[in-house]
Specification:
single chain, mainly alpha, 67% helix, 8 helices
Length: 312
């Protein structure tokens, strides 16, 4: 083990940052339940399950840091021993990642018109990551020292690598599918651009955190810097899910002047029509654009331009 500042010091910083992000999670959860009471029961259940897993994880890492820095204060020999909560917290981080990434995988499935190739590609990484997490916990739960735990370094690196790969692949699929959903109309394409940017942003922080944890354990394997990043990973997954759900009304509000509304329920192209058209599908993102008529007159002509929007 290295010096205290890059071992238990990094450990403490990770817990503090994680606790801060947990506060953001609680606020976002309250906002979701208060602003979206009509959401389907399974989405509400997902949010509740993710919050529960996140809460247990925060309690476990708080117990770990309290044990090392308070209970075992002044007992240097105990700092090399493993506390059970440090191992169990990995499992709950895995639960959180599994639920959030499965939600995003279902979005890929529906946006890709139920493409088996796209779905299986993402799902294999998501399930593979969780399986490795379970194997890691099963092997480490009987270990008693950090020296013994170092034997599982390749397994820990694999977990972070699959987490980063899964997040990148999900974002890539969503951006590609949204790009293909362009209609050629300015209004709908503007909304597509917003959704592409939003998809990149929601997967960016989790990918960076997983990559930093992977780099840290590879370069500074005798420190706990990688643990600090891993502590925050579950919190970022939870907040990315809640940000995705909570952004719907703000995006809808931004588009109100363009007679356009959005809900995270699926994108589907339909034929042009005069009036208002919308198809509700059990998908994850949908855009409805009310058809409008605009009359454009200038000093050169007095033509009438009819602009129709497509429901995507």
């Amino acid at each position: 083990m290295g010096a205290l500042d890059n071992t238990f010091g990094a450990f403490l910083i990770g817990v503090v940052i994680s606790a801060t992000l947990y506060g953001v999670t609680c606020v976002q959860t309250w906002y979701y339940y208060s602003r979206y009471p009509s959401d389907p029961w399974y989405i509400k259940l997902l949010v509740g399950a993710v919050l529960l897993s996140d809460s247990v994880h925060q309690a476990l890492i708080t117990h770990t840091v309290y044990t090392y820095l308070v209970t075992d204060f002044g007992v240097a020999a105990d700092l090399g021993n493993l506390v059970w909560s440090l191992i169990v917290e990995v499992l709950f981080n895995g639960f959180t990642a599994l639920m959030v990434q499965s939600f995003l995988t279902m979005r890929v499935y529906r946006l890709s018109n139920k493409s088996i190739i796209a779905t299986v590609s993402v799902l294999s990484l998501v399930i593979g990551e969780f399986v490795l997490v379970v194997i890691y916990v099963a092997k480490s739960i009987h270990m008693t020292t950090f020296v013994q735990l170092s034997a599982l370094k390749p397994l820990s690196m694999s977990v972070n690598a699959l987490a980063a790969a899964g997040d990148v692949l999900i974002a890539a699929f969503l951006c590609t599918l949204l790009q293909k959903s362009r209609t050629g109309f300015r209004r709908s394409d503007t909304m597509i651009n917003r959704l592409i940017l939003f998809s990149i942003n929601t997967g960016l922080l989790t990918s960076i955190c997983a990559v930093m944890s992977l780099i840290s354990i590879s370069v500074w394997g005798d420190t706990f810097i990688y643990i600090a990043f891993y502590f925050c990973l579950g919190r970022l997954y939870c907040n990315s899910l809640l940000a995705t759900l909570n952004a719907r009304k703000s995006l809808r509000g931004d588009s109100r002047d363009e007679n356009m509304s959005l809900s995270l329920q699926g994108i589907q192209k339909t034929s042009n029509s005069i009036g208002t058209s919308q198809k509700r599908l059990p998908n994850n993102i949908s855009i409805k654009i009310d058809t409008t008529q605009e009359y454009v007159r200038d000093e050169y002509s007095s033509a009438t331009e009819l602009k129709s929007a497509q429901a995507v």
